[in-house]
Design brief:
Elements: H1 2-7, H2 10-52, H3 56-67, H4 69-75, H5 81-88, E1 95-98, H6 106-116, E2 123-126, H7 138-150, E3 157-160, E4 178-183, H8 186-199, H9 218-223, H10 237-242, H11 254-267, E5 268-273, H12 277-287, H13 289-292, H14 295-301, H15 318-325, H16 328-351, E6 352-355, E7 358-361
Parallel strand pairs: 1-3, 1-4, 2-3, 4-5
Antiparallel strand pairs: 6-7
Length: about 375
């Protein structure tokens, strides 16, 4: 190699050496660029993760503090309460999903939302699924999440429909809608539904129901062990709170019961009781006034609040009740109902006082003080 180079003219040898060094330098630069790109990707992923965990504002705050203290003060000083709310919670982006359980008084409550939507400036949208299915395929759930999250023209929004719980964060959404619901004593709900299919209600009295003309009583149905009144038919409120997983809809699943409890306490703002609907509405009005102001007045004195009562309903006998309550499904549904009732009563106690038949909000329990640094006064 050395002898070959010496045989070449000096200029060609010099050019060859320069080309070799350039080639080595280019390779080195490409390696550094790849390393830099990898570091950028790692940093972006870390920022995204911190943003989802609520830590991004802290990173931004520290950076601003290091560069310009005065700029930090100006950047984080709200010009009004409304502007301050927009940074973290803007009522104009509010989305509430009421995944209503059948025969729990949901029509009466939903009518109040329809009556309030114009005055309180929000949108009410009914979720209509194919064949009234309570669950959707995974791809449909993704489209559902994307549509609700991005449909800004219809925000604030109150969605309602007979649909199992969907966890928006599972599909990459940073924000989870506010879930609310009503539940009812399990056996009362099933008996009401049984006679509703035969006699209808006073909401649409002329509509023909599935079992119209069938005079069978619930007692007779249970004694004959007909499919529509087997204990498994009680399995409705647990799966609605559990979600779209197949195990949620497996009657008697202990996993589904525990998942339903978990979702109720972590993903629902408030879950009321059918027999205490007035209290449920009062709690909502106190908690989400931007949407529910005036709801209690409508419920107490409105014309559409107490609709949809089953036209004919015969209470089951003691023997029928004992037979139903002997089943594992009833015991689980009853356990879930009592769990929800305990939580609702605690929420109600901490939110409202009832004095002389009137609801009074519990006085505020927090104030802000000793705030530093002081903001510069405007001249």
């Amino acid at each position: 190699m050395t002898m070959g180079l010496r045989s070449l003219p000096q200029t060609k040898a010099t050019l060859f050496i320069i080309m070799v060094f350039l080639f080595i330098a280019i390779i080195s630069v490409e390696v550094q660029i790849r390393d830099l790109q990898d570091n950028v990707r790692k940093l972006e992923n870390k920022v995204i993760k911190m943003e989802r965990n609520g830590d991004f504002n802290m990173v931004k705050r520290r950076t601003l503090k290091r560069t310009n203290k005065e700029s930090f003060v100006e950047a984080h000083r709200p010009s009004s309460v409304k502007e301050s709310n927009q940074k973290f919670f803007d009522t104009r982006d509010l989305v509430i999903i009421y995944n209503r359980v059948p025969k729990t008084g949901s029509t009466s409550f939903t009518n109040i939302a329809y009556d309030l939507c114009v005055e309180n400036e929000f949108n009410v949208l009914h979720i209509n699924t194919t064949r009234n299915m309570h669950v959707m395929a995974l791809a449909d759930q993704m489209r559902f999440v994307v549509n609700i999250t991005n449909w800004t023209a219809r925000k604030p929004a109150f969605y309602h429909g007979h649909l199992g719980f969907i966890d928006f964060t599972r599909f990459g959404s940073i924000q989870q809608p506010i879930y609310i619901n009503l539940i009812r004593q399990p056996l009362e709900r099933l008996v009401s539904y049984f006679y509703f299919l035969r006699y209808g209600d006073d909401y649409r009295p002329n509509m023909r129901r599935t079992k119209q003309g069938d005079k069978m009583t619930f007692d007779e149905c249970v004694s004959k062990e007909m499919p529509e009144c087997l204990p498994e038919k009680l399995w409705m409120q647990i799966p609605f709170f559990c979600g779209h997983f197949q195990e949620c809809w497996n009657p008697g699943s202990e996993w589904a019961l525990q998942q339903a409890k978990y979702n109720l306490v972590t993903n629902y703002l408030v879950v009321g009781l059918t027999e205490e609907m007035e209290d449920f509405i009062a709690v909502l009005e106190a908690t989400v006034p931007s949407m529910f102001t005036g709801a209690l007045e409508l419920y107490q004195h409105g014309k559409r609040s107490h609709l949809r009562k089953t036209s004919t309903k015969i209470d089951p006998s003691a023997a029928t009740i004992a037979k139903i309550k002997n089943s594992i499904v009833w015991k689980m549904e009853d356990e879930f109902y009592n769990f929800a009732r305990t939580i609702f009563h605690d929420v109600k106690r901490r939110t409202l006082h009832v004095k002389n038949g009137e609801y009074i909000n519990v006085p505020q329990r927090f104030t802000f003080e000793k705030i530093r640094p002081k903001l510069p006064q405007k001249k």
